[in-house]
Amino acid sequence: MKDLNIKNDWTVLELQNLYDLPFNDLLWKSHELHRKYHNPNEIQISTLMSIKTGGCPEDCKYCSQSIRYDTDINLEKTLPLIDIIKQAKDAKESGATRFCMGAAWRNLTQSNLKKVKEMVKEVKSLGLETCVTLGMLSDTQAQELKEVGLDYYNHNLDTSEEYYKKVVTTRTYQDRLDTLQHVRDAGVKVCSGGILGLGEGNIDRIKLIQVLANLNDHPESVPINRLVKVEGTPYFDNFEVDEFDFIRVIALARIAMPKSYVRLSAGRDTMNEQMQALCFFAGANSVFYGEELLTTKNSTIAHDRELLKKLKINTMRDSTDVDVDKKTKKLKDIGDQIVGNYKKERVRLVAYSQGIEKEIIRCKNNSKTNRLEYFQDYASSFEEYFGSLKNRFNV
Ligand code: SAM
Ligand code: DTB
Ligand code: SF4
Predict the structure, then answer these.
(1) 275 falls in which pLDDT band (50, 70, 90)?
(2) What is the position in ligand 2's atom list of the atom closest to the CA of 288?
(3) At a CB cut-off of 8 Å and minimum separation 6, what does 316 contact?
(4) DSSP-based three-state secondary structure for 129
(5) Distance (Å, rounded) from C-alpha 351 to C-alpha 358?
(6) Has residue 357 got a pLDDT over 90?
(7) Residue 169 pLDDT greater than 90, yes or no
Protein backbone atom coordinates (compact mmCIF):
# COMPACT_ATOMS: atom_id res chain seq x y z
CA MET A 1 0.00 0.00 0.00
CA LYS A 2 1.25 3.47 -0.86
CA ASP A 3 2.60 5.43 2.08
CA LEU A 4 0.85 8.81 1.83
CA ASN A 5 3.56 10.54 3.84
CA ILE A 6 6.13 9.81 1.14
CA LYS A 7 5.52 12.08 -1.82
CA ASN A 8 7.53 13.59 -4.65
CA ASP A 9 5.17 16.27 -5.86
CA TRP A 10 5.54 18.97 -3.24
CA THR A 11 4.47 22.42 -4.33
CA VAL A 12 6.18 25.55 -3.04
CA LEU A 13 2.86 26.63 -1.57
CA GLU A 14 2.43 23.42 0.43
CA LEU A 15 5.92 23.72 1.86
CA GLN A 16 5.55 27.45 2.46
CA ASN A 17 2.32 26.81 4.40
CA LEU A 18 4.11 24.28 6.58
CA TYR A 19 7.07 26.59 7.08
CA ASP A 20 4.76 29.44 8.15
CA LEU A 21 2.91 27.41 10.78
CA PRO A 22 3.22 28.53 14.38
CA PHE A 23 6.55 27.12 15.60
CA ASN A 24 4.96 24.59 17.98
CA ASP A 25 2.56 23.31 15.35
CA LEU A 26 5.36 22.83 12.84
CA LEU A 27 7.54 21.00 15.36
CA TRP A 28 4.65 18.85 16.49
CA LYS A 29 4.03 17.74 12.90
CA SER A 30 7.66 17.07 12.15
CA HIS A 31 8.26 15.28 15.43
CA GLU A 32 5.23 13.08 14.92
CA LEU A 33 6.63 11.92 11.55
CA HIS A 34 10.09 11.62 13.03
CA ARG A 35 8.76 9.15 15.64
CA LYS A 36 6.84 7.24 13.06
CA TYR A 37 9.89 6.52 10.90
CA HIS A 38 12.82 6.71 13.28
CA ASN A 39 13.83 6.10 16.83
CA PRO A 40 13.67 9.64 18.30
CA ASN A 41 16.35 8.80 20.85
CA GLU A 42 18.97 7.56 18.46
CA ILE A 43 21.26 9.35 16.02
CA GLN A 44 23.64 8.19 13.36
CA ILE A 45 27.18 9.51 13.55
CA SER A 46 29.61 10.04 10.71
CA THR A 47 33.21 11.19 10.80
CA LEU A 48 34.59 13.47 8.16
CA MET A 49 38.13 13.57 6.79
CA SER A 50 39.62 15.87 4.19
CA ILE A 51 41.66 13.68 1.84
CA LYS A 52 42.75 16.58 -0.38
CA THR A 53 42.61 20.10 0.97
CA GLY A 54 42.42 23.45 -0.83
CA GLY A 55 43.39 24.65 -4.28
CA CYS A 56 39.91 24.08 -5.72
CA PRO A 57 39.22 25.90 -9.03
CA GLU A 58 35.51 26.45 -8.23
CA ASP A 59 34.35 29.79 -6.82
CA CYS A 60 31.79 28.73 -4.17
CA LYS A 61 31.59 31.95 -2.13
CA TYR A 62 31.31 30.13 1.20
CA CYS A 63 34.28 27.85 0.81
CA SER A 64 37.70 28.12 2.43
CA GLN A 65 39.13 25.77 -0.19
CA SER A 66 38.51 27.80 -3.33
CA ILE A 67 41.77 28.95 -4.91
CA ARG A 68 40.12 32.32 -5.59
CA TYR A 69 40.01 33.44 -1.98
CA ASP A 70 42.83 34.26 0.35
CA THR A 71 42.04 32.01 3.30
CA ASP A 72 44.27 30.66 6.01
CA ILE A 73 44.16 26.91 5.37
CA ASN A 74 46.90 24.32 5.06
CA LEU A 75 46.98 23.18 1.45
CA GLU A 76 47.44 19.44 1.20
CA LYS A 77 47.90 17.05 -1.71
CA THR A 78 45.88 13.82 -1.77
CA LEU A 79 46.74 12.03 1.46
CA PRO A 80 48.39 8.60 1.43
CA LEU A 81 46.19 5.58 2.02
CA ILE A 82 47.92 4.73 5.28
CA ASP A 83 46.85 8.06 6.89
CA ILE A 84 43.30 7.49 5.82
CA ILE A 85 43.17 3.97 7.25
CA LYS A 86 44.55 5.22 10.56
CA GLN A 87 41.95 7.95 10.84
CA ALA A 88 39.14 5.59 9.84
CA LYS A 89 40.20 3.16 12.58
CA ASP A 90 40.16 5.98 15.14
CA ALA A 91 36.72 7.08 13.92
CA LYS A 92 35.38 3.58 14.34
CA GLU A 93 36.78 3.41 17.84
CA SER A 94 35.05 6.64 18.81
CA GLY A 95 31.73 5.20 17.68
CA ALA A 96 31.27 6.41 14.09
CA THR A 97 29.42 4.05 11.77
CA ARG A 98 30.17 6.00 8.60
CA PHE A 99 33.44 7.50 7.35
CA CYS A 100 33.14 10.37 4.87
CA MET A 101 36.08 11.44 2.75
CA GLY A 102 36.01 14.88 1.12
CA ALA A 103 38.24 16.30 -1.61
CA ALA A 104 38.50 19.85 -2.93
CA TRP A 105 38.03 18.85 -6.54
CA ARG A 106 35.77 20.31 -9.21
CA ASN A 107 35.35 16.83 -10.65
CA LEU A 108 36.96 13.45 -10.41
CA THR A 109 39.87 12.58 -12.72
CA GLN A 110 40.59 8.98 -13.72
CA SER A 111 43.86 8.89 -11.75
CA ASN A 112 42.12 10.20 -8.64
CA LEU A 113 39.32 7.70 -9.16
CA LYS A 114 41.86 4.89 -8.92
CA LYS A 115 43.16 6.21 -5.60
CA VAL A 116 39.68 6.78 -4.18
CA LYS A 117 38.63 3.25 -5.09
CA GLU A 118 41.49 1.89 -2.97
CA MET A 119 40.46 4.14 -0.09
CA VAL A 120 36.84 2.99 -0.27
CA LYS A 121 37.87 -0.68 -0.31
CA GLU A 122 40.15 -0.28 2.71
CA VAL A 123 37.70 1.75 4.81
CA LYS A 124 34.90 -0.63 3.99
CA SER A 125 37.00 -3.60 5.08
CA LEU A 126 37.16 -2.04 8.55
CA GLY A 127 33.40 -2.53 8.80
CA LEU A 128 32.53 1.13 8.28
CA GLU A 129 30.01 2.55 5.85
CA THR A 130 31.74 4.70 3.26
CA CYS A 131 30.84 8.11 1.89
CA VAL A 132 32.82 10.36 -0.44
CA THR A 133 32.35 13.90 -1.72
CA LEU A 134 34.60 14.63 -4.68
CA GLY A 135 32.77 17.11 -6.91
CA MET A 136 31.19 16.18 -10.23
CA LEU A 137 31.05 12.53 -11.31
CA SER A 138 30.30 10.90 -14.63
CA ASP A 139 27.93 7.93 -14.87
CA THR A 140 30.76 5.43 -15.38
CA GLN A 141 32.77 6.84 -12.47
CA ALA A 142 29.73 6.44 -10.23
CA GLN A 143 29.39 2.83 -11.38
CA GLU A 144 33.06 2.14 -10.66
CA LEU A 145 32.67 3.51 -7.15
CA LYS A 146 29.61 1.33 -6.63
CA GLU A 147 31.60 -1.72 -7.75
CA VAL A 148 34.13 -1.23 -4.95
CA GLY A 149 31.33 -0.97 -2.41
CA LEU A 150 30.81 2.78 -1.95
CA ASP A 151 27.69 3.33 0.18
CA TYR A 152 27.01 7.10 -0.11
CA TYR A 153 27.97 10.01 -2.33
CA ASN A 154 27.62 13.53 -0.91
CA HIS A 155 26.84 16.30 -3.37
CA ASN A 156 24.88 19.27 -2.08
CA LEU A 157 22.46 21.49 -3.96
CA ASP A 158 23.16 24.12 -1.29
CA THR A 159 20.19 26.46 -2.00
CA SER A 160 17.47 27.23 -4.57
CA GLU A 161 18.31 27.13 -8.27
CA GLU A 162 17.73 30.91 -8.55
CA TYR A 163 20.02 31.81 -5.66
CA TYR A 164 22.68 29.26 -6.61
CA LYS A 165 23.81 31.48 -9.49
CA LYS A 166 24.83 34.14 -6.96
CA VAL A 167 26.80 31.65 -4.86
CA VAL A 168 28.73 29.75 -7.55
CA THR A 169 29.42 30.83 -11.12
CA THR A 170 31.76 28.05 -12.23
CA ARG A 171 29.07 25.36 -12.54
CA THR A 172 25.32 25.16 -12.80
CA TYR A 173 22.54 23.72 -10.69
CA GLN A 174 21.88 21.30 -13.53
CA ASP A 175 25.50 20.04 -13.24
CA ARG A 176 24.75 19.19 -9.62
CA LEU A 177 21.49 17.46 -10.52
CA ASP A 178 23.25 15.45 -13.24
CA THR A 179 25.82 14.12 -10.79
CA LEU A 180 23.06 13.21 -8.35
CA GLN A 181 21.36 11.27 -11.12
CA HIS A 182 24.56 9.39 -11.97
CA VAL A 183 24.97 8.46 -8.33
CA ARG A 184 21.36 7.27 -8.06
CA ASP A 185 21.54 5.32 -11.33
CA ALA A 186 24.68 3.53 -10.16
CA GLY A 187 22.86 2.35 -7.04
CA VAL A 188 24.96 4.42 -4.61
CA LYS A 189 22.95 6.09 -1.83
CA VAL A 190 22.50 9.83 -2.22
CA CYS A 191 23.54 12.35 0.41
CA SER A 192 22.42 15.84 -0.62
CA GLY A 193 21.42 18.94 1.29
CA GLY A 194 22.32 22.57 1.64
CA ILE A 195 23.73 25.51 3.57
CA LEU A 196 21.84 28.23 5.35
CA GLY A 197 23.51 31.59 5.82
CA LEU A 198 24.50 32.39 2.24
CA GLY A 199 22.30 35.49 2.28
CA GLU A 200 19.37 33.53 0.85
CA GLY A 201 15.75 34.15 1.78
CA ASN A 202 13.34 31.71 3.37
CA ILE A 203 11.88 31.08 -0.07
CA ASP A 204 15.26 29.76 -1.28
CA ARG A 205 15.40 27.38 1.68
CA ILE A 206 11.88 26.17 0.94
CA LYS A 207 12.73 25.67 -2.74
CA LEU A 208 15.87 23.71 -1.84
CA ILE A 209 13.76 21.31 0.23
CA GLN A 210 11.26 21.12 -2.61
CA VAL A 211 13.91 20.10 -5.17
CA LEU A 212 15.40 17.47 -2.85
CA ALA A 213 12.00 16.06 -1.90
CA ASN A 214 10.80 15.96 -5.50
CA LEU A 215 13.71 13.87 -6.76
CA ASN A 216 12.36 10.47 -7.88
CA ASP A 217 13.75 8.97 -4.70
CA HIS A 218 14.45 11.08 -1.65
CA PRO A 219 18.14 11.33 -0.76
CA GLU A 220 18.85 8.80 1.96
CA SER A 221 20.80 11.47 3.80
CA VAL A 222 20.10 15.23 3.88
CA PRO A 223 22.81 17.39 5.47
CA ILE A 224 21.72 20.83 6.59
CA ASN A 225 24.77 23.03 7.15
CA ARG A 226 24.88 26.41 8.83
CA LEU A 227 27.50 28.58 7.15
CA VAL A 228 30.85 28.43 8.89
CA LYS A 229 32.17 31.91 8.22
CA VAL A 230 35.69 31.69 6.94
CA GLU A 231 37.87 34.79 6.87
CA GLY A 232 38.90 35.64 3.31
CA THR A 233 35.74 34.25 1.69
CA PRO A 234 33.15 36.66 0.26
CA TYR A 235 30.59 35.45 2.84
CA PHE A 236 32.72 36.08 5.92
CA ASP A 237 30.57 39.05 6.97
CA ASN A 238 27.19 37.48 6.26
CA PHE A 239 24.32 37.93 8.71
CA GLU A 240 23.70 35.11 11.15
CA VAL A 241 20.85 32.76 10.26
CA ASP A 242 17.95 33.19 12.63
CA GLU A 243 18.04 30.12 14.86
CA PHE A 244 14.29 29.52 14.72
CA ASP A 245 14.44 29.67 10.92
CA PHE A 246 17.21 27.07 10.97
CA ILE A 247 15.10 24.76 13.14
CA ARG A 248 12.13 25.32 10.85
CA VAL A 249 14.18 24.15 7.86
CA ILE A 250 15.15 20.97 9.73
CA ALA A 251 11.47 20.38 10.49
CA LEU A 252 10.51 20.99 6.88
CA ALA A 253 13.13 18.52 5.65
CA ARG A 254 11.81 15.93 8.09
CA ILE A 255 8.20 16.41 6.92
CA ALA A 256 9.05 16.45 3.22
CA MET A 257 11.42 13.45 3.41
CA PRO A 258 10.20 11.42 6.39
CA LYS A 259 12.44 8.40 5.91
CA SER A 260 15.69 10.24 5.21
CA TYR A 261 18.41 10.86 7.73
CA VAL A 262 18.54 14.61 8.28
CA ARG A 263 22.02 15.62 9.33
CA LEU A 264 22.70 18.55 11.59
CA SER A 265 25.88 19.24 9.72
CA ALA A 266 28.46 22.07 9.71
CA GLY A 267 28.04 24.91 12.17
CA ARG A 268 27.22 22.87 15.27
CA ASP A 269 30.15 24.21 17.25
CA THR A 270 28.49 27.63 17.37
CA MET A 271 25.04 26.24 18.27
CA ASN A 272 24.21 25.97 21.94
CA GLU A 273 22.94 22.71 23.45
CA GLN A 274 19.35 23.88 23.57
CA MET A 275 19.35 24.70 19.87
CA GLN A 276 20.83 21.32 18.97
CA ALA A 277 18.25 19.61 21.19
CA LEU A 278 15.46 21.41 19.34
CA CYS A 279 16.97 20.34 16.01
CA PHE A 280 16.92 16.72 17.21
CA PHE A 281 13.32 17.16 18.29
CA ALA A 282 12.40 18.71 14.94
CA GLY A 283 13.81 15.70 13.08
CA ALA A 284 17.59 15.81 12.82
CA ASN A 285 19.03 12.35 13.46
CA SER A 286 22.58 12.42 12.25
CA VAL A 287 25.68 14.50 13.02
CA PHE A 288 29.32 14.78 12.13
CA TYR A 289 31.38 13.60 15.07
CA GLY A 290 35.04 14.49 15.55
CA GLU A 291 37.04 17.60 16.29
CA GLU A 292 37.30 18.76 12.68
CA LEU A 293 35.08 19.04 9.63
CA LEU A 294 37.11 19.58 6.47
CA THR A 295 39.04 22.75 7.25
CA THR A 296 37.07 24.13 10.18
CA LYS A 297 36.33 23.17 13.77
CA ASN A 298 33.49 20.89 14.77
CA SER A 299 31.90 20.50 18.16
CA THR A 300 34.35 18.57 20.38
CA ILE A 301 33.84 14.85 21.08
CA ALA A 302 33.77 15.52 24.83
CA HIS A 303 31.09 18.14 24.39
CA ASP A 304 29.02 15.90 22.11
CA ARG A 305 29.22 12.98 24.54
CA GLU A 306 28.03 15.22 27.34
CA LEU A 307 25.16 16.57 25.27
CA LEU A 308 23.99 13.14 24.12
CA LYS A 309 24.16 11.91 27.71
CA LYS A 310 22.06 14.82 28.93
CA LEU A 311 19.48 14.21 26.22
CA LYS A 312 19.65 10.41 26.69
CA ILE A 313 20.23 10.02 22.97
CA ASN A 314 22.03 6.87 21.82
CA THR A 315 24.25 6.59 18.80
CA MET A 316 23.51 3.96 16.18
CA ARG A 317 25.82 0.98 16.28
CA ASP A 318 25.82 -0.83 13.01
CA SER A 319 26.68 -4.18 14.62
CA THR A 320 23.26 -4.27 16.30
CA ASP A 321 21.54 -3.47 13.05
CA VAL A 322 23.53 -6.01 11.13
CA ASP A 323 22.63 -8.67 13.72
CA VAL A 324 18.96 -7.77 13.55
CA ASP A 325 19.01 -7.72 9.76
CA LYS A 326 20.78 -11.07 9.50
CA LYS A 327 18.39 -12.73 11.89
CA THR A 328 15.36 -11.23 10.14
CA LYS A 329 16.58 -12.46 6.79
CA LYS A 330 17.18 -15.96 8.13
CA LEU A 331 13.69 -16.08 9.64
CA LYS A 332 12.12 -14.79 6.47
CA ASP A 333 13.96 -17.40 4.41
CA ILE A 334 12.68 -20.23 6.61
CA GLY A 335 9.19 -18.68 6.51
CA ASP A 336 9.20 -18.45 2.72
CA GLN A 337 10.24 -22.06 2.45
CA ILE A 338 7.41 -23.25 4.67
CA VAL A 339 4.79 -20.93 3.21
CA GLY A 340 5.76 -22.10 -0.25
CA ASN A 341 5.37 -25.73 0.70
CA TYR A 342 2.38 -25.75 2.97
CA LYS A 343 -0.34 -23.38 1.98
CA LYS A 344 -2.65 -24.28 4.83
CA GLU A 345 -0.20 -22.76 7.28
CA ARG A 346 -0.22 -19.55 5.31
CA VAL A 347 -2.67 -17.63 7.45
CA ARG A 348 -0.85 -18.40 10.68
CA LEU A 349 2.48 -17.63 9.09
CA VAL A 350 1.30 -14.32 7.70
CA ALA A 351 0.08 -13.40 11.17
CA TYR A 352 3.46 -14.42 12.56
CA SER A 353 5.32 -12.43 9.92
CA GLN A 354 3.28 -9.35 10.65
CA GLY A 355 4.03 -9.92 14.30
CA ILE A 356 7.73 -10.02 13.66
CA GLU A 357 7.62 -6.87 11.49
CA LYS A 358 5.96 -5.07 14.40
CA GLU A 359 8.51 -6.44 16.83
CA ILE A 360 11.33 -5.23 14.60
CA ILE A 361 9.88 -1.72 14.57
CA ARG A 362 9.26 -1.93 18.31
CA CYS A 363 12.75 -3.11 19.08
CA LYS A 364 14.26 -0.52 16.72
CA ASN A 365 12.40 2.11 18.76
CA ASN A 366 13.67 0.64 21.97
CA SER A 367 16.85 1.87 23.57
CA LYS A 368 20.05 0.48 22.11
CA THR A 369 20.94 -1.53 25.22
CA ASN A 370 17.95 -3.80 25.27
CA ARG A 371 16.68 -3.82 21.72
CA LEU A 372 18.81 -6.67 20.47
CA GLU A 373 17.95 -8.76 23.52
CA TYR A 374 14.29 -7.96 23.03
CA PHE A 375 14.39 -8.84 19.36
CA GLN A 376 16.22 -12.06 20.09
CA ASP A 377 13.55 -13.18 22.56
CA TYR A 378 10.89 -12.76 19.96
CA ALA A 379 13.00 -14.26 17.22
CA SER A 380 13.69 -17.40 19.29
CA SER A 381 10.00 -18.00 19.89
CA PHE A 382 9.44 -17.49 16.18
CA GLU A 383 12.23 -19.90 15.37
CA GLU A 384 10.82 -22.42 17.84
CA TYR A 385 7.49 -22.24 16.10
CA PHE A 386 9.13 -22.76 12.74
CA GLY A 387 11.11 -25.62 14.20
CA SER A 388 7.89 -27.35 15.22
CA LEU A 389 6.44 -26.79 11.75
CA LYS A 390 9.58 -28.14 10.14
CA ASN A 391 9.31 -31.29 12.26
CA ARG A 392 5.63 -31.70 11.50
CA PHE A 393 6.16 -31.36 7.79
CA ASN A 394 9.62 -32.89 7.58
CA VAL A 395 11.11 -29.86 5.82
N1 SAM B 1 34.23 19.81 -3.63
C2 SAM B 1 33.14 18.99 -3.38
C3 SAM B 1 31.81 19.65 -3.62
O4 SAM B 1 31.73 20.85 -3.61
O5 SAM B 1 30.83 18.91 -3.80
C6 SAM B 1 33.15 18.35 -2.01
C7 SAM B 1 33.58 19.12 -0.79
S8 SAM B 1 32.55 20.47 -0.35
C9 SAM B 1 33.51 21.24 0.89
C10 SAM B 1 31.19 19.74 0.46
C11 SAM B 1 30.09 20.64 0.96
O12 SAM B 1 30.48 21.27 2.16
C13 SAM B 1 29.65 21.76 0.07
O14 SAM B 1 28.78 21.35 -0.92
C15 SAM B 1 28.97 22.71 1.06
O16 SAM B 1 27.59 22.39 1.13
C17 SAM B 1 29.64 22.38 2.39
N18 SAM B 1 30.46 23.51 2.86
C19 SAM B 1 31.61 23.93 2.32
N20 SAM B 1 32.08 25.01 2.97
C21 SAM B 1 31.20 25.28 3.97
C22 SAM B 1 31.12 26.28 4.97
N23 SAM B 1 32.04 27.24 5.09
N24 SAM B 1 30.08 26.25 5.82
C25 SAM B 1 29.14 25.29 5.71
N26 SAM B 1 29.16 24.33 4.77
C27 SAM B 1 30.17 24.31 3.90
C1 DTB C 1 28.26 18.49 4.09
O2 DTB C 1 27.09 18.77 3.76
N3 DTB C 1 28.95 19.14 5.02
C4 DTB C 1 30.28 18.61 5.13
C5 DTB C 1 30.25 17.43 4.16
N6 DTB C 1 28.98 17.54 3.54
C7 DTB C 1 31.33 17.16 3.25
C8 DTB C 1 31.34 19.63 4.89
C9 DTB C 1 31.26 20.79 5.81
C10 DTB C 1 32.40 21.67 5.54
C11 DTB C 1 32.47 22.81 6.49
C12 DTB C 1 33.55 23.73 6.20
C13 DTB C 1 34.93 23.19 6.29
O14 DTB C 1 35.28 22.49 7.29
O15 DTB C 1 35.74 23.50 5.42
FE1 SF4 D 1 35.62 23.42 -4.34
FE2 SF4 D 1 33.70 22.01 -3.11
FE3 SF4 D 1 34.78 24.18 -1.93
FE4 SF4 D 1 33.20 24.51 -4.02
S5 SF4 D 1 32.63 23.63 -2.04
S6 SF4 D 1 35.19 25.52 -3.70
S7 SF4 D 1 33.70 22.71 -5.24
S8 SF4 D 1 35.83 22.29 -2.41
Answers:
(1) very high
(2) 4
(3) 42, 43, 44, 45, 97, 368
(4) strand
(5) 11
(6) no
(7) yes
